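Hi R.,

Here are the chain sequences for the assembly we discussed:
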Amino acid sequence: MSRHSLAHPYTALSVFRDESFLQASAPLFEANEVEAIEWSFDTAWGTGPLPPHFHHILTKFAQQHRLTGHGVSYSMLSAAADDHHQRWLTQFALEVKKFPYRAISEHFGFMVTSNYHRNAPMPVVFNKKTLELGTRNLEKIAHIADDIPVGLENLAFAFGKKDVTEQGEFLDALLTPFNGFLILDLHNIFCQESNFGIPAAEIIETFPLNRVKEIHISGGSWSTHQEQRIRRDTHDHGVPEEVYAILQATLKKCPNLDMVIMEQLSTALTSPEQQAQYREDYRRMRQIVKVAYA
Amino acid sequence: MRSFNPIDLFQAKLLRALASHVNAEKAKEELLRDPELAEFHEYIAGFEPRMMEVAAVLLIKWGIPKQT
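And here is the predicted structure of the full complex:
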């Protein structure tokens, strides 16, 4: 996994077709501050054609080989999702013909079961059977992706400490047969640090850092359960200080890092204040990356 | 539809327990009492009820149950 010719990893935005995102990000695109983009392609399946101006953004970055694809609904650790997987893979085979993606990634966890069409992604225990299941499901993506690198993102949600401490090893075992890459989501690490009292630096070291090709940063929110504050990966607020600190500490530990991506839901970008904060967050992320590789 | 795949059995019963109990401790107890989930009991024993509450909130927000 070699990086491109820039001195630093690309700084990138997760893109949405909504007007609020386009308004918030326009000054960044106009100033050429966005070096690459991430598109959650499966959110558009079955929703009709993309708006022409948005399609133009995807095409422009794809032509420069700076478009990375990030699926959100495959549910790779589901054990009873054959029909769902087949539908997803059929669409995916068409998707990779639409744009020359730089890389393709999905999420760790399960969302589909025999009694639910969909849910938020949740973890499963790491053992021989779940590894075989995940490997089988990931292989189907890798087969269609062909020579496009395939990766997985670490999950924020954990039922208990075991989900936190074993996820890195589980991901490494899943990715090894495909020489796959890891998206290290630093806000997800911050959630686990906050919710389980394990230092972020300690959690980071449990992941195969040589596999990290992309880093995500984002914001989230707090809720209270059983009188304890829980950090949640809701992508609906600005990036907290702690995540910037984790970013600074992590960048140079990832020798194959290709892209650092900021994610924020477009539904949280409706006011001028939110949009200004979003741009400020992106510029701060970009500055941290540039300084780290100067 | 009843599943015979042990991993799906765990996944489906977990979501059902999260959906049917207001109390996370009760949901955890139910899962730990279920002999069909014996191979997952050690894993489930490590579940923290406050995180099961979060999972229940996520299920309410994002879950789409299948018709039985």
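The mean pLDDT of chain A is 96. The interface with chain B takes residues 78-80, 110, 113-120, 122, 124-125, 129-130, 133, 157-162, 195, 223, 225-226, 228, 230, 232 of chain A (CB under 8 Å).

Let me know if anything looks off.

Best,
T.
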